[in-house]
Predict the 3D structure of the following.
Amino acid sequence: MGRKKKEKFAENLTFKSLIQYDYTNAKNLIDDYIGGESITLELGCGKGEYTLALAKKYPNRKFLGVDIQGERLWKGAKEVDEQSIQNAKFFRVNIEKITQYIPKESVEEIWLTFPDPFPKNRNAKKRLVSENFLPKYMAIGKSNLRIHLKTDSELLYNYTLEILQRKKITPELLSDNVHEDEKLVDSDVVGIKTYFERKHLLAGRKIHYIRFILK
């Protein structure tokens, strides 16, 4: 591990806005933050661009960015602490284990922002929209849990549509090119751009989007 990475990991331990799975009181810290209210999750949040932007735009709602990569979470957590943002926190944990920490029926909305598409078929169950993950979301979600998927991967976009068709779920909204879609002008879908999205746009890639409800 490089020196800068070690420094970030050490600083992560000082952030009030960052909870880590190996804290003995991690679940209690999550419960205290949610406080019986509804929450929006950003899963695979990376540097937390969506978590931060949404928290600033909607100060009366609570947001939690989730990722296993501590080096990436460092940036978002540092900004939350330095700016004293009260309605955003980050949680370092493997997403497969979120049901162990997030209270049942506490999540009203989930953003999946540029998750790994796992292009090889043998890894399909690792995709965050796979039938391996949807039951986990339902376990922690409120009734009519809204899911947003934003991706540059045509494979993941089409795979998600196949999953929804198999489960007889009709998408609320979908777009195969959000930045050319009049329906999404002034929406959070195009108004917030992650680090990876900016890279994809510079490379000339289309950004796809699907919004659907889990009941």
In short: The chain is about 35% helix and 20% strand. The chain has a mean pLDDT of 95. Helices lie at 3-12, 26-34, 49-57, 70-83, 134-140, 154-166, 188-191, 195-202. Residues 1-103 form a domain with the Rossmann fold fold (CATH 3.40.50.150).
